[in-house]
Amino acid sequence: MSKYKILVVGAGPVGLTAALELSRLGQEVKIIDKNAGHSTVSKAVGINARSLELLEPSGVTDSLINAGISLKKMYLHAAGKAYVMNMGLIKHQYNFMLMLPQNETEAILENALNQLGIFVDRKTQLMRLSQQKTHVTAQIETSHGEIEETYDFVIGADGAHSVVRKSIGANFNGAAYEASWHLLDLMMDFSFDKPASHGFIYPKGQVLVIIPIGKQRYRIIANANDAFSLLPEDCNVHEVFWQSHFSVHHRLTDTYRKEHVFLAGDAAHLHTPVGGRGMNLGIEDAAILAKLISNGEWKSYHDLRYPIGKKVVTETDKAYRMLTLTNRVGIFLRNRLLLPFASIPAIQRKQLTNIAGLSEK
To answer: Would you say the pTM of this structure is higher than 0.90?
Structure first.
């Protein structure tokens, strides 16, 4: 196994996973992030079976499970009916979706990385890259000024506005959805079946999702400016901890690799929250890339991961458009035919295998 010097740009869940796996496999890793510390807000909350499986070798899976809430039921409410999807139908040891706020996920990953003697260089920002035949030169801004360093490989896990992606001239094809999204973490009374997630779809194309992330604490996601207006009547909100408005994009880079530079996570793909694949797809990218680099098979990264990224972006776009229908005929067909059909156990199992990230193994 060859040993390489690798720079990981971005210390979110994707970058931390890359650094953790590379270090575990004996690579020399430096990880930088422009922020002063890891995320202090929840952001992504769902960890699927594939991520838990890939993180097992690093020893963090049990810590994540112990810290989170394991959900086996996901309800979809439409036209006065409730359709339940049972994660227990998946034939896998992790036949659930783990709900854990992103800041807690990052803390667990970073602690595991620290145990290997690797610490994130904070307030440190990549400015630009240049590639030579056998290595990459990085211009990095630190609190003490700009420095120049060379690496065998650079991994861009620096999000939607990736400096790494821009540095290699990769396109980021796609567009934003028209609707604005409202994200909240709050404390409330909620009488529906729990622990379970509950999605509500409305005739005007609005969608509301309620996800438990703690005792009486919930994540609310809605494609509306005001999620409160879509909450069921019996919801009694006590306290709002955090909220944000944002736009959702469906985008995919045209290349996951250019010579010795790689893209992973949101730097490579963006899509709707439907199915909870966003952070998980990035964790998959990172863990698989670490293995490919360590095995000397890094040239195959784009060919392996691009088709999966394209599939997820396409499928989540279709699912989102189905959930947000406003056409009466389309709504009728969805509510009377598609949703009952999707509730058949064999069909559910296939859908849930996708959500769990297990269909692309």
So the answer is: yes
Q: Between helices 278-294 and 301-323, what is the axis angle to 10°?
A: 170
The structure tokens listed for 226 are: 């005001």
Tens digit of pLDDT for each residue in 276-335? 888 999 999 999 999 999 999 999 999 999 999 999 999 999 999 999 999 999 999 999
- Residue 35 inside a domain? The answer is yes
**48, 133: one domain:** yes
The two tokens of residue 262 are 């790689």
Task: Look at residue 78 and tell me if it is in a domain.
Answer: no
Q: Which of 197, 213, 247 is the last residue of a domain?
A: 247
Q: Which amino acid is at 234?
A: D
140: amino acid identity, one letter: I
- Would residue 79 count as lying in a domain? no
Q: Which residues contact 337 (CB under 8 A, 6 or more apart)?
A: none
- Residues in contact with 321: Cβ distance below 8 Å, sequence separation at least 6, in sequence order: none
d(CA 222, CA 220): 7
| H helix or E strand, kind and range, residue 84 | strand 81-86
Q: Write out pLDDT tens, residues 217-234.
A: 999 999 998 999 999 988
